Every structure is written in C-alpha cells, then in structure tokens.
Amino acid sequence: MESVQTVIKTLLKHPTQINSKSQIKQIHGQIIKCFPDFTSELLSIYSKLNLLPESVILFNELSSPSILAWKSMIKCYTSNSYFLESLNCFVKMRDFGVYPDHNVFPSVLKSCTHLMYFKFGESVHGCVIRVGLEFDVFTGNALLSMYSKLQKFNALQMFDESPDRMTVDQNESILNGNNNLSNKVDQGLNKPSLFNLTSNQSVRKVFESMPTRDVVSYNTLVLGYAQMNMYAEAMMMIREMSNDNVKPDAFTLSNVLPIVAEYMDVCKGKEIHGYAVRHGLDKNEFIASGLTDMYASCNMLEDSYRLFSTLPKKDYVSWCSIIAACVQNGLFDEGLRLFRQMLSVDIKPVPISFSSIIPACAHLTTLPLGQQLHGYIIRSHFDDNMFIASSLVNMYAKCGNIKVAKRIFDHMKQHDLVTWTAMIMGCALHGHAHDAISLYKKMEIEGFKPNSVTFVAVLTACSHAGMVNKGLNFFKKMVKCYDITPEFEHYACMVDLLGRAGKLDEAFGFICRMPENNNASVWLPLLAACRVHKNVELAEKVVTRIREFDSENIGAYTLLSNTYSSVGRYKDATNMKSMLFKKANRKEPACSWIRIGNTIHGFVAGDESHPYYDSITNALDILFEQMKNEEFVADTTVNFLMFF
C-alpha cells in the first residue's frame, strides 16, 4: 500500500505525466480510499485535461474550496468556452472571501473579452491593481488582449481620470464579494463602455507598466495595431521587440504582413521575408501565405509564385493564397489552372477557395465553368456560405444570367453589403434600373449603409435608364447623407448619365467642377455622347483637354474620328485614322473574346490569324450591306476596331 501511496503522491506533484481520462479516473479511485484531502489537486488535473463535467461534480462536493479548486474551475470553464460561468465562479470565489492569485486573472479577463463585458473587465482590472498583480506578465498580457480586442483604449490613464470611472469601492466589491456584481454578470453586463476613446495611449500605458514583457505581450499589441490599421505603430512595436531582445515569432510576422501588403511597402515586406528565412519561419503556412499575399499586393506576382513553388508542403492555405493572387492581378486563366491543379493533388477546396476563384469566371464570362463550380459548391454544402453566394450572384450577373443571380440572392438566409451591391449592379448592367433602385431602398430599410461601390451601381442603373433627376439626387445623397467623397467612377457615371440624356454642356461643366479631372475615364463617356449627338465642336474641345494629360490615348482619337464620320467630315476622319495608325504601333493592341460551345475565340486588334478570319469579314460585309439597304447607320467604331 505504501508503494501505491508513493506513486500517487508523485503523480500529484508532477501531473503532466497524467494525460488521459482513464488514468485520472484510476487515480481518483485511489485518492478516495487513501487521500481524501487531495481533492483540490485532483480537481486541478481534471481541469488541465479540460474534463468539465467531472470537474463540476468534484467541485460541488467541496464544502470549502481552496484557491486551487477555485482557479481550476475558473480556468476549466474558460477553456471550454463557458465564459459566463467562469465569471460567476470568480464572483462566488470572492463571496467566500478567497483572494485571487496570478493564475486566476488571465482566465477571467479572457472571459470578459469573449463576452465583450467591457465594464466588468474594467472592474477586474481594478481588482488586479488592488491585489498588486498588474506587474505579472501573464495578467498584463491578458489585459492587453482585452483592451486591444475590444478596441477600447482606456487602461490606466483613463481609468484614473474619467468622471464615470469605476471607483475604489466598486473595485473592492469584487474583493469583498458584493452579490450585486454577481447579479450584473448574470444579467449580461455587455453594454458599451462610457469611455469612448480614440487614443491608443492607455493601452501603451498598460504595456509600459509591465516590468517584464514577453513575445506574447508584443504580439498582443502588434495585433491590436494591425486590426486598427495603424501601420506605423505596428512596425514601431517590431523595432521595440528587437531593442528589448525579444524575437518576433511566426504569430508576429503573420499579423504584420497583411498591413505591409495593404500599404504596398515591398521593402519592409522583403525585410520581413529575410528575417523569416534566417530564423526558419518561411515554411510556416501562415507566413508563407502572408508573404504570397504581400508580393501579390505589390504587383510582384512572380515572387509570389516562386515562393509558392518552393514550399515543401502545400496545404489549402498556400493554394488559396496563390490562386487569389493570380485572380487579383488579372491572371484569371492562371488562377483557374492552379485551381484545377489543386484538385488534382487531392486538396479539397474550402469556402475561401471558391470565393477566390469564382471572380475569375465572372471576369472571363465563362458561365459553363462557373456552373460547374456552383455544382461542386452545392455538393460540398457550401451554398449557404454568404461570401460564396455573393460571388455566385456577381458571377451569374456578369455572365448574363440575371435570373439565376436573383434566385440565389432571394434564397440567401442573410445578406451583407457586398451581396446587396452585387445584385444592384447586376440589375443595373442588365437594364433593370427600377429593380436596382428598389433593391437599394430595401437595403437601406434593412439597416445597411451603402458604400462607394454601392453608389457606383445605383448611378450606373440611373445612367442606363436615363433617370437624370434620380441620378443627381443619389449623387447628392451620397455626399451629404453618407459623407462619401466622389471618386472618378461616380463622376464618370454622372457624365455618362448626362451625356446619354443629351445634356452635353451640363456634363462638360460637371467635369470642369471636379477637384481633379485629369483622368480619361471621366472624359471618354462625354466624348462618346458627343459622337451619338453629333456635337463635333464639343468633341474637339474634350480631346484637347485629354491631350493635356494623356496625349497617347487612342480611345479619344478613335471617338473623335467616328464623330467626324457621323457628320460627314470624312477627310478629317481619314486624317485622324492615319495618325492613329502611327500611334497604334506604340500601344499594346486591344483584345476581346467570345465563347462558342466549349471553345473560346480570342480577337486581337490588327491580327488576321484567326482560322475563320475571312468568313468573319465576309459576314460583316453582308451585315453592313443589309444595314445600308434598310437605311441603318453603321457604327463605324465596330468597323474601325475590327480592321485596325
């Protein structure tokens, strides 16, 4: 018997050797027989193994739980995501007059963070200070995590200075077991804090008050800055880590790479890449994915692909990153090829895989392939995913099947702003302007705030339907009600709207009033309208303006040439074409394509290599002759581009 007792005592002193439920059950039986006073130690082991039901039963058998028992239960509740129970257990512990130690607060603060109980978290912070544990590194890390994740920067400074702060007496209510606080927790104290701060100095004070900081401390702050899109501050923390002899780990780099990508700071990105290589972190799946995204965002797709190719093991994260990189950089065919290759090596797509590849089908208007992906999505039971559904709505709309797009939209359980915008734009592009505006109004009623892209969709709908007054009202609403600064796309929509309605002078004045109008995308819709309405004088004035900042713009000269032709000034049109031939030799030729059956036919301006070139030109001649006989005026833009 003595040998068994010795073994059990040894195991209780070194519980890491116990790693299964069956082992702890056997020890539990022996403890009941021989060591009834070791129940708290046993509970601690149950807690470390995350055996919540067994822990609760054992805890309830204790008439006067020790600090070890309390902190074991609090930690077990938190580890099993029973956050409210964890906080209630913490309050009950104070009811029993037990003072928390440094092992209790990290779990309690984590529960506050997940429940977003900010005010209660503040009170716990006060308790931390009262018991003198604010300098404990683990408690400090938990505080940093709570404040940064809740994005409420009110630690030490604002805690002391706010007129609505938690008072010392309120903080003592935790220490003295005030039951009112327990009731507040039971009621769900998740109301917003009265401290609506925008400064990050308070979190910095928590950080700076910590005498010892580890990599977790720095990572917590870096993550907070990254989530707040505070690029300079995040990079400053990386430098401080080095000065403090704390080495960034994989978590650090994976947090900072997205903001490096967003700011397109390729030099800093390469520094991070070099550090990862030197410290053996470059093969980490999340860092490799972050580096792939970073290089792609900086228009360095070759570097992204080279990095992807060197990975010894490619998981779904790395595949999704390189596929998304190709699609985002306009290499849609390459993105589709990589997607097929991913399937061929038995990597099953995840929802983000489809969200990355479906836009390629939309841009290439490859409806059959998009339909195949849709079928795969349904078989994989991903069709309820809101982001995938949004991509499908956009794909079907751009591929010309607005009915299917609408059906998918209507069957979605919930919509986000992206989904609404995709559906509004789909209706707009298909000429269903009233449906687009009706969707916009419904979106507003449901509480969604339109963004810049949403208004591009609405203005496009107004433009295609000739709704001048509605378009002007939406434009004013965008600026005055939603405080959105108009971009080139909005101005281009308005110019197109006015131009289609024949209000050419108003459109010209609209552009001239723009804060910055040195962009051909704004002037070209007006120039196209001049051709339609045969306003040569204004067309020449527009081309003169475009020449000031883009003298090589072939589209402008093409439209002017066609405007000359529309009014019978064929000599001027011919002279313009002659000049265009010279300029075209220095420009990359335009390309278009069409799918017939399972074959995609591509056409490049000036290229006569298509096997059916002669048949196509003969068909065009016949069509033009029929149009002439039926007194239709041929669109010379088509004729010109075909043979240019």
Give a written overview of the molecule.
The protein has a two-stranded antiparallel ribbon. It is 69% helix and 2% strand. Helix 2 packs antiparallel against helix 3 and helix 8 crosses helix 11. The C terminus is likely disordered. A hairpin with a 2-residue loop joins strand 1 and strand 2. It has 644 residues and is an all-alpha fold. The chain is elongated.
Q: What is the name of the CATH architecture of the domain at 213-340?
A: Alpha Horseshoe
What is the 3D form?
A: elongated
**Count, helices:** 37
What would CATH call the class of the domain at 213-340? Mainly Alpha
Strand line-up in the sheet with most strands: 1-2
Q: Sheet bearing the most strands, described?
A: 2 strands, antiparallel
Strand-residue proportion: under 5%
At CATH level 3, the topology of the domain at 213-340 is Serine Threonine Protein Phosphatase 5, Tetratricopeptide repeat
Give the key terms.
disordered C terminus, Serine Threonine Protein Phosphatase 5, Tetratricopeptide repeat, 644 residues, 2% strand, two-stranded antiparallel sheet, 37 helices, elongated, mainly alpha, single chain
Summarize the structure.
This protein has 644 residues and is mainly alpha-helical.
